[in-house]
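User: Predict structure, ligand flavin mononucleotide.
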Amino acid sequence: MTRKLEVAVVLGSTRENRFCGKVADWVVRGASADERFALDLIDPLQLNLPCHLEAEEGLAVQGLSAQVAAADGFIIVTPEYNHGYTASLKNLIDSAYEEWNAKPVGFVSYGGLSGGLRAVEQLRQVFAELHAVTMRDGVPISNPWDELDEKGEIAPSELRQRALKSMLDQLAWWGSALAEARRAAPYKQRAA
Ligand SMILES: Cc1cc2nc3c(=O)[nH]c(=O)nc-3n(C[C@H](O)[C@H](O)[C@H](O)COP(=O)(O)O)c2cc1C
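Assistant: Predicted complex:
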């Protein structure tokens, strides 16, 4: 049997009573039902990362770096804050560097009408700098709080399930291709 791809689901909010957990739960339910993936969760609320970048990495940053290094790909679950993404997500991203390199990143976003798309477009620029590859198809969810099911969970509409499947298919393709390429030759950053 081929090795499962290690995919880390990254939560993009640390706000008290955040909605992010519901969206991440929906993503985890969908991706863990897919045999191609083994999932990990990266939650900045649990990590307690320092807000300033330390000269010597503490345990929280070391733990995060190890999680990012172990992953073959990522699904970022992000809200939109003032037409961007959150400070806690930027802090998390900036706390690692090479560990993100040559890996695929997919997005599930949420917010008002925009479904968090403006946050995602900004994140694409950030991940390009980290030599990561962002998936074309994401899953933008508009006003998800208005349409929870009877259990209070994100309702799995057909459109949304299809969007998640497209993103996961792209993540699986890029994840396998890049894992193989990294095994064949370590990725080296080249200065312009
Ligand atoms: C500081 C702040 C700024 C926000 N700005 C936007 C925005 O620009 N666009 C949008 O669609 N929603 C915006 N919202 C609403 C969020 O989409 C909504 O509160 C969502 O639940 C935030 O995710 P979270 O609960 O997981 O933190 C904002 C919320 C906060 C707290």
